[in-house]
Amino acid sequence: MPPAPAPRLRVDVSGLPRYVPGRVAPSDLVDKLSSNENPYPPLPSVLTSMREELGRVNRYPDAKSGELVRELSEALGVPPEHLVPGTGSLGVARDLLYAAAGEGDEVLFAWRSFEAYPLLVWATGATPVQIPLREERHDLEAMADAVTDRTRMIVVCNPNNPTGTAVRRDELERFLDRVPGDVLVVLDEAYREFVDDTDVPDGVELYRDRPNVAVLRTFSKAYGLARLRVGYAVAHPPVAAALRACTIAFSVSGLAQAAARASLHASDELLERVRTLVTERARVTRALRASGWTVPDSQANFVWLRLGARSRAFTDACEAAGVMVRPFGDEGVRITIGTPEENDRLLKIAGDWRA
Ligand SMILES: *Cc1c(COP(=O)(O)O)cnc(C)c1O
C-alpha cells in the first residue's frame, strides 16, 4: 500500500519559529531569575480561596467569570462589558489577533519585544511586521510610518519585554493620534504594576476615549499567579464582543477565577510586595552601573544587559553559580528581579564577571 498522505494543514506549522520558554528550574536551590515571575509565594488568603474551590472541580466554572469581571470593573472603573478575561494575557492576545487579523493582513510590533508576538501572529495567517527598537526603546515614529492599508493591529508592549523600557505619555498620545482609527492598537501592560515613572501613561486611562485602543493586563506577574493562567483585556464593546466570540468557552478555570478574586481583595498586601521589587530594581540597576554595566532604565520586574556575543557566556557563568537568567540569542540577557538575597547573588556574579 502507498503511504497515506499527510493531513493538509492551514499553514506550514513545522516551519514556524517556536516559543522558547524559560527552562524549568532543576531544583529549588537554583535562583530562577529567567521568567519574570514573582519570587513570593501565594498569600494564605489566596490559598484558602483556592482550597475552597478544589472540591468543586467536577463542575464547569462560570464561563463569563462574572464575579471576577464585576470586581475588576469596580477596581478599574470600567464597564463590565469592556472586560474580557482569558487564559493569561497571552491567551487573550491570541484571541484578539484571531478577532482582528488573518491571511493578507499585517500586524506591527517592535523588535526585540515579547517573543510570543511573532508566533501568535504567524498562527493567524497574518504577516508580522517588526519595527526595530531604537536604543532599546519603541520607535513609535517608525511604527506609525509603517502602517499600510493592510495593517490591522499594532502591539505596543509597555514596559517592553525584554528591555524594560517604557514609552511616555506624550510620545504615545502623538502616536495614537497618527494611527488610523480602523487599526486596533493593543497596549500590552503585563508589567503595569511595576511602573513608578509618572510620565508612563496608564493604558486604562488612554483607552477611554479611543475606541481603537485595547489594553492587556495579567495576574501572572505582579499578582504572582503565573501558573494559573489568568489575564484580561479592556476594550470598547465592538472589540470586546469580537474578542469574546473568539474565546474558547470556560477558558478561565474556577481555580484561576478564585485566586484572581482573592488577589484583588488582597491587592494592598500584594502591591506592597511589588513596591519591594521596584525598590530592588533600583538597587540592582545602581549596583550594576556602579560596576561598569550599561543598563537601560527599566519600569518592569527585570533588567536588560546588552551583552551581544557574550550573552551565552554570561548565562553559563550565572548558571554555574546557581542563578538562571534568560539569554536572547546574541543580543542580550534579561534578568528578573528576585528577592534581595537572590539579587545579591546575581550582583556578585555580575561584579566578578566584569572584573
Ligand atoms: C509575561 C508576559 C505576558 C504573558 O502573561 P500571561 O498572562 O502569563 O499569559 C504577556 N505579555 C508580556 C509582554 C509578558 O512579558
Summarize the structure in words:
A 7-stranded mixed β-sheet has the order 2-8-7-6-5-3-4, with helices on both faces. Strands 9-12-11 form a 3-stranded antiparallel β-sheet, with helices on one face. It is globular. The chain has 12 helices and 12 strands. The longest helix has 24 residues, at 267-290. The mean pLDDT is 95. The chain has 355 residues and is α/β, with parallel strands linked by helices. Helix 7 (203-207) links the parallel strand 6 (184-188) and strand 7 (213-218). The N and C termini lie far apart (67 Å). Bound molecules: pyridoxal-5'-phosphate. Pyridoxal-5'-phosphate binds next to helix 3. Pfam families: Aminotran_1_2. Keywords: Aminotransferase, Pyridoxal phosphate, Transferase.
What descriptive keywords fit this protein?
single chain; 355 residues; alpha/beta; seven-stranded mixed sheet; three-stranded antiparallel sheet; 12 helices; globular; binds pyridoxal-5'-phosphate; EC 2.6.1.57; pyridoxal phosphate; PyrdxlP-dep_Trfase; aromatic-amino-acid transaminase activity; Aromatic amino acid aminotransferase
Main sheet summary: 7 strands, mixed
Could you say which structural class the secondary elements and strand pairing correspond to?
Answer: alpha/beta
Strand order of the largest sheet: 2-8-7-6-5-3-4
The unreliable regions are none
By DSSP (H or I, 4+ residues per run), the number of helices equals 12
Strand proportion, as a percent range, falls in: 15-25%
